C-alpha cells in the first residue's frame, strides 16, 4: 500500500515558509552585518548560507513528514509536532535576534536552547522512524557550527 505524500509536502512547505519568512524579515539587516561585523576565520561565504538552510529545511520537513506518516499513535504524532514546532519557533526567532536586534550573546544562548531542542527532536523522531532522526543530523551539525560562529561574533564584537 502506498503511503500518502501529503504529510511530506505539508511539512516541507511549512518549514520552508517559516525559514523564508525569517530570511525576508532580516533581509535589510544582513548587509549591515556583512559590512560592519568582525567575523571568525571559519565563516563560510555569504552565498552558502541560503543554500545550506534550504537543504536543511527540506530535510527537517521530510523528517517530520516521515514521522507523521509512520506514527502508530496520536501521542507519537503529537509529541513530534510539538517538539518540531517549538524548535522551528526558536529557529525562526534566532535570525531576528542575531541580525536585527544584534544581541549576539543573547542569540548565542537562544541558539544553545535550539541545539538542545534539536537533540530532543532527534530522540522523539527516532522512536517512530530512524530515518527521520538521521535526516535531522545535518541540521544538528550545522546549528553546532552556527553556535561556534555566533559565539565568536559575540566575542569579537
Label this structure with key terms:
about 160 residues; mainly alpha; 7 helices; about 80% helix
Overview of this protein structure:
- This protein has 157 residues and is an all-alpha fold.
- Helix content is 82%, strand content 0%.
- The chain is built from seven helices and no strands.
- The protein has helices at 6-25, 30-36, 48-70, 74-101, 104-128, 130-134, 137-156.
- It is elongated, with a radius of gyration of 16 Å.
- The protein starts with 5 loop residues before the first helix and ends with a helix.
Oligomer: single chain
Q: Outline the biggest β-sheet.
A: none
Total count of strands: 0
The tally of helices reads 7
Give the SSE string. Answer: HHHHHHH
Helix share, percent: over 70%
Q: What is the SS-derived class?
A: mainly alpha
**Uncertain residue segments:** none
Q: Note the gap between the termini.
A: 56 Å
Q: Tell me the Rg in angstroms.
A: 16 Å
Q: Overall pLDDT, averaged?
A: 95
Secondary-structure blueprint:
Blueprint: H1 6-25, H2 30-36, H3 48-70, H4 74-101, H5 104-128, H6 130-134, H7 137-156
Helix pairs in contact: 1-3, 1-4, 4-5, 5-7
Amino acid at each position: 500500500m502506498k503511503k500518502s505524500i501529503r504529510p511530506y509536502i505539508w511539512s516541507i512547505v511549512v518549514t520552508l515558509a517559516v525559514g523564508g519568512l525569517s530570511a525576508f524579515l532580516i533581509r535589510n539587516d544582513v548587509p549591515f552585518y556583512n559590512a560592519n561585523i568582525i567575523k571568525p576565520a571559519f565563516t563560510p561565504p555569504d552565498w552558502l548560507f541560503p543554500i545550506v538552510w534550504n537543504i536543511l529545511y527540506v530535510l527537517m520537513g521530510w523528517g517530520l513528514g516521515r514521522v507523521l506518516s509512520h506514527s502508530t499513535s496520536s501521542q507519537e504524532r503529537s509529541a513530534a509536532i510539538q517538539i518540531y514546532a517549538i524548535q522551528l519557533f526558536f529557529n525562526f526567532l534566532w535570525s531576528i535576534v542575531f541580525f536585527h536586534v544584534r544581541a549576539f550573546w543573547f542569540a548565542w544562548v537562544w541558539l544553545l536552547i535550539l541545539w538542545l531542542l534539536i537533540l530532543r527532536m532527534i530522540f522523539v523522531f527516532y522512536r517512530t522512524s530512524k530515518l527521520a532522526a538521521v535526516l535531522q543530523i545535518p541540521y544538528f551539525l550545522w546549528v553546532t557550527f552556527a553556535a561556534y560562529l555566533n559565539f565568536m561574533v559575540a566575542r569579537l564584537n
